[in-house]
Amino acid sequence: MKKTPSLRLAALALLGTALGAGTLAAQTVDTQRIENPSPNDWLTYHGSYDSHHYSALTQINTQNVKNLQVAWIHIPGRSTRGLQSTPLVADGVLYYSGSYSRVFALNGATGEVLWSYFPELDDALVSRQTHSPYNRGVALGEGKVFVGTVDGRLIALDAKTGKPVWDTKLIDSQKLTVGFTGAPLYVKGVVVIGSQGGEWPVEGTIYGVDASTGKIKWTFVTTGPDEESRKTWGNDTWRIGGGGGWMPGGYDPKTDTIWWGTSNPDPLYDWAGSDWMHSGARPGTNLYTTSVLGLDPQTGKLKFYHQELPHDAWDFDSAPGEFQMIRHNGQDYVVHANKSGFIFVYDDHANVKNVWPIVHNYNFVKGIDPKTGELIGRRDFTAGKQDEVLCPHISGGVSWNAGSYNPKTGLYYKIGQEWCMKLEVVKTTPVTEPQVQLNIGANFQIAPPPGGQIYGHLDARDPITGALKWEVKSPEPPMASVRSTGGGLVFVPDSRGIIHAYDATNGKELWSHNDGLGHQGGIISYAVGGKQYIAETTGFGGMVSDDFAPAFGGVYKSMPRDDGALIVYSLPK
Which residues lie below 8 Å from residue 119, measured CB to CB, with a gap of 6+? Predict the structure, then answer.
């Protein structure tokens, strides 16, 4: 990371004074600034283009974290199915999204609302969507805040006023019941966003939109975009193949490449058994679903790819958008977590350098070749109830919740989820045209691993080899993101509603606080006026966390499903 010029530090100090007086002043967020961010800011969903989910700030550290206390709270209202977003901060202003793609700009030091924006949505359409109405974040660029909506729009707001600059319809959501839940990514004048689409009979699409005008610059269809890839979809099933890229990816400035992950094909489960190349619901390898893509940011042209799970029959997609750009022993690597619980390590052109599991319970394969990425002993299904549970659970060995790489310790902090499911594969009537309907092809129920219990764990590992340094177990899988800091801390908000701070070197718990609501969103650190803050979203509910009450009971039975808050911590004066 480049050193921040002294003039910039002086400007930030003045800005802290200005914010204290309630004045909004901001500098332009552009690609160069995101490449070389100040630790005071949090400029993208993943923090910066390197996606480390790491804050270099040191004011809050292992010695004083025990004194951490709530600085302020913002309640956005109408938090249906909780909050899943990750806040952003630029020049002391905090931006975040709530349910129904509502966007807020707050004074990062006081929580004062500077502006809010509530888009008009089609409530009837929203009610038909299984993933509605949550939103996982926004993007900043060129003086604008960009947010996707569940009814298929991408909206640009003026960062100073919150007034719409443009509003572009990208998807006919009335026809397809598919929209946007993930955050966009801003790169060189282009806003990139991926649609939902794993369980719907649609063509999954990633969009590149002009940040100034809102006009579509390019699209990349993830199911059969060219003749060669269509050959990997028997019976022209690419037309309804799913494969949306629902979470934001990363950007590598060295190669000028966007890295993006895609979701599972449609239908989600297949009944072809071992003959999946020639029979079943979608014969073939199904490019480019459950794949990692390298795209040109200006044209959307495919530079390279690696299909992590050919013919994904388990919903273990590659869409979790965490691409950790790590320099290790003089080599550049990209570390990507697949929903299966396997971590893929690539060079900067998606050539496999290693593959290692962060979960202990998996049986969809016997293993994955660490040199080639080839699946070993894959387990495919025929129609009917399966005799053995499938591990991991459909929610994943890892999910959208991001891990954190700390360049000081050289460790990768990541949640692993140990759960399985009872599965019945259903041979459904073939769908031949894109339409409004889920196409799952199975019935399933959460179950413990064979001979064990469901639990989650925070691991500290070497990101390249997977070697374990330490591990902390949780009674249920934590569903929120992880954050490490220059102060030697790892913050983990858990599902029961407790936020924990651990020593980054040994995993010792140093502080905790009960927020009263479960966590399933992001956590960041930033500074205003020389003071460091920790900000997180709370609020439980959604396709994954709805299973917690029947599966685990306890606090989850009484935990609200339509509540949420942004909670910000700091040290006392």
Answer: 100, 101, 102, 147, 149, 153, 155, 167
Please give the positions annotated as active site: 315
Q: What whole-number distance in Å separates Cα of residue 147 and Cα of residue 436?
A: 24
Let me know the angle formed at the C-alpha of 548 by 546 and 549, rounded to the nearest 5 degrees. Answer: 90
Residue 422 neighbours by CB under 8 Å, 6+ apart:
385, 386, 389, 444, 445, 447
pTM over 0.85: yes
> What does the alpha-carbon distance between residue 472 and residue 414 come to, in Å, rounded to a whole number?
11
How do residues 464-506 score in pLDDT, each as one tens digit? 999 999 999 999 999 999 999 999 999 999 999 999 999 999 9
Beta bridge partners of 146: 139, 156
Structure tokens at 392: 């991991």
CA distances for 196 relative to 77, 112, 204, 245, angstroms: 25, 33, 7, 6
Burial pattern 66-78, b for ≥16 Cβ within 10 A else e, equals eebeebbebebee
Residue 368: other Cβ atoms inside 10 A = 24
pLDDT in tens, 117-158: 999 998 888 877 777 788 999 999 999 999 999 899 999 999
At position 377, the amino acid (one-letter code) is G
Phi, psi angle pair for 84, to nearest 5°: -125, 10
Domain ranges of the chain: 1-119+459-573
Rounded to whole angstroms, how far apart are CA atoms 156 and 145?
6
- Beta strands (DSSP E) in 441-530 are 442-447, 455-461, 468-474, 483-485, 489-493, 498-503, 509-514, 523-528
Q: Is the pLDDT of residue 62 over 90?
A: yes
Q: Are 335 and 347 spatial neighbours (Cβ–Cβ below 8 Å)?
A: no
